Known about the structure:
The protein has 2 domains: 6-141, 3-Layer(aba) Sandwich (Rossmann fold), CATH 3.40.50.300; 147-389, no CATH class. Helix 7 crosses helix 13 (280-287). The strands form 3 sheets. Strands 2-3-4-1-5 form a 5-stranded parallel β-sheet, sandwiched between helices. The chain has helices at 6-15, 33-41, 61-74, 95-109, 129-132, 147-154, 158-164, 177-197, 206-218, 226-232, 239-251, 265-270, 280-287, 291-296, 298-320, 360-366, 385-389, and strands at residues 22-27, 47-52, 82-87, 113-120, 137-141, 255-258, 274-277, 323-329, 332-340, 343-349, 371-375. Helices cover 44% and strands 17% of the residues.
Amino acid sequence: xxxxxxxxxxxxxxxxxxxxxxxxxxxxxxxxxxxxxxxxxxxxxxxxxxxxxxxxxxxxxxxxxxxxxxxxxxxxxxxxxxxxxxxxxxxxxxxxxxxxxxxxxxxxxxxxxxxxxxxxxxxxxxxxxxxxxxxxxxxxxxxxxxxxxxxxxxxxxxxxxxxxxxxxxxxxxxxxxxxxxxxxxxxxxxxxxxxxxxxxxxxxxxxxxxxxxxxxxxxxxxxxxxxxxxxxxxxxxxxxxxxxxxxxxxxxxxxxxxxxxxxxxxxxxxxxxxxxxxxxxxxxxxxxxxxxxxxxxxxxxxxxxxxxxxxxxxxxxxxxxxxxxxxxxxxxxxxxxxxxxxxxxxxxxxxxxxxxxxxxxxxxxxxxxxxxxxxxxxxxxxxxxxxxxxxxxxxxx
Length: 397
């Protein structure tokens, strides 16, 4: 069975003797976090307990305290380490405070419980973990899958990956387009919006949130001003509401509003965003156009290619420590700008929208230190789309 490289990281952390930190596995819904944990547990020669809040009749603080105490009992009075895995921890009310109390008690008493928590990316880093558990945890990220992973695990070709994206659970339906699209909508999109997004903050208009996601998925890879969004959405309120909802969708790992690159942060915030899905399946399963339409329509395929490149950049950004933007000045445009500290990379996607083929020279004249990356095409130094989607292209010098 295929294993992601994160499995060996988890195995190594579970085996560490001197590391007291809680390990937190985070990532968007349906990216294989639970599978990675069970694969890791199969490889360690340690006592362990795997529990999930999904199996609790009522996932509560009392349930978590009981499971933690059972793991303590397995240590034989502190004589041997025990790995405790708590999956879907974000469903437990006030879990950061509960975990903090249990963890701190173990540290004081010398109880060797090695805690590993897992859950959807949105409610974890943004739901109290950073405050309540400051200095007590390490993150292990589970991003959307790359072409390399999907090729090894499911035999995907480049064209398969562009349309089907990188959700492993959907791969079983790859040959049945209708079932595949239903799976993505019903198992990934709807629960993410109705559960994960709503757990992030106040959403007064859930119907607007869903409509905004559909609009954003349809326009993925394109600039769309907030005023234009208001014109296409009923009962949209104001631009502040839309910006807030897009921020929540971004934290949930489904859709983001890429800001325009500018050295002045104030200007960035005022700019029109470029909408971008975190996985191309969120785009293709939503619009219902079908694979044949994308193959026959060069403009639509261009947006699909740009969305695939953008999705890989979004997946790599947290681990590689960079922020992602796009850039335009007049008719000059660069598809993506990656910024890490003082390093800048300008990424141009050939085979995308024709309106986005210019602008690199203008951008480099303003930022001569930037690294130029061309994805696709036949120009000197260009990388292939296949290599880029396999994460084989370094983004910085």
